[in-house]
Amino acid sequence: MIPTNGIQKFFRILLGALMVLAAVGHFTFQRAEFQAQVPDWLPLGKDLVVILSGLVELALGLGMIFWKQQRINVGLALALFYVLIFPGNIAQYLNGTNAFGLDTDQARLTRLFFQPVLILWALWSTGALKFLLNRKKLQAA
Questions:
Q1: What is the 3-state secondary structure (H, E, C) of the chain?
Q2: pLDDT digit string (tens) for 66-79?
């Protein structure tokens, strides 16, 4: 297991808590906001997608907080989740959909640049980034 420091642990738990909060929002007070981000081309009902993605966010958030033995795998899974939901953010920008206070094209475009930050946050805070970098070095040797 790749060790992480106290700062990484703090940010891992913070990200996990934010994911749990987002999951609660999927089921309750932000449900319509999340539905607005589901691309029209997705062949599932928007509410179903919001509920299913909320369940995934809940599991990943709790995993970030409590499942430290698998933190690298949880970090990789969360980073992949952020990649998979990125088309919803792109659709929100392209369709000019207002949600989460993003009511201008500039605000929606700016948000797109934060997705890589979330991906790196998930990878760095769990030690998955170091794992991936070390793995590539080992394969090159």
A1: CCCCCHHHHHHHHHHHHHHHHHHHHHHCCCHHHHHCCCCCCCCCCHHHHHHHHHHHHHHHHHHHHHCHHHHHHHHHHHHHHHHHHHHHHHHHHHHCCCECCECCHHHHHHHHCCHHHHHHHHHHHHCHHHHHHHHHHHHHC
A2: 999 999 999 999 99
